[in-house]
Design a protein that fits this description.
It comes from Knipowitschia caucasica. Pfam families: PCC. InterPro entries: PPC_dom. This is PPC domain-containing protein. The protein has 145 residues and is mostly beta strands. It has a single domain, classed as 2-Layer Sandwich (60s Ribosomal Protein L30, Chain: A). Strands 1, 2, 3, 4, 5 and 6 form a 6-stranded antiparallel β-sheet that branches. Strand 3 and strand 4 form a beta hairpin. It is globular and about 50 Å long.
């Protein structure tokens, strides 16, 4: 287990912008090395989600859906290879969720609070047990900051 203090970054993504790319841009432009989603509210026009039944050997359990959708939950880490899970609700309240694949085009807005653990560094490496690239957390070398 690792621990760190917390820095907070806030981002508003506007209509038509890609939420995923906007988060990647924030990470890159701010030099964040251990970022994660604290909170997100807003709406998107479409989603592409990998379902829980997918495996590394059989990754094609995918939903492509057109909205509009309210973002009910967005969680994950934003290391160079973002790992995001999303739950959205449609216009009659049905919910669907899964691992985000591809862009999330914003409908009206997306207000995102991103945390960073400044004493840590996130990366992803292949895990032979799961078959996926999994999170690796390391102490940040303070001399490199």
């Amino acid at each position: 287990m690792a621990s760190s203090s917390l820095r907070v970054h806030v981002l508003r993504v506007r209509p038509g912008q890609d939420l995923v790319q906007s988060l990647k841009d924030l990470v890159s432009e701010s030099g964040l090395r251990a970022p994660f989603i604290l909170s997100c509210v807003g709406s998107v026009t479409s989603v592409r989600l990998r379902l829980a039944s997918a495996t590394a050997a059989e990754p094609n359990q995918v939903l492509d859906l057109s909205g509009p959708f309210e973002i009910l939950s967005l969680v994950g880490t934003l290391n160079p290879e973002a790992h995001l899970h999303l739950c959205v609700g449609d216009s009659i309240g049905r919910c669907v969720g899964g691992h985000v694949l591809g862009p999330l085009p914003v409908l009206t807005t997306a207000e995102v609070v991103v945390g960073e653990a400044p004493a840590l560094c996130f990366s992803r490496h292949p895990d032979p047990q799961t078959g996926f690239n999994e999170l690796v957390v390391e102490d940040r070398d303070q001399d490199q900051d």
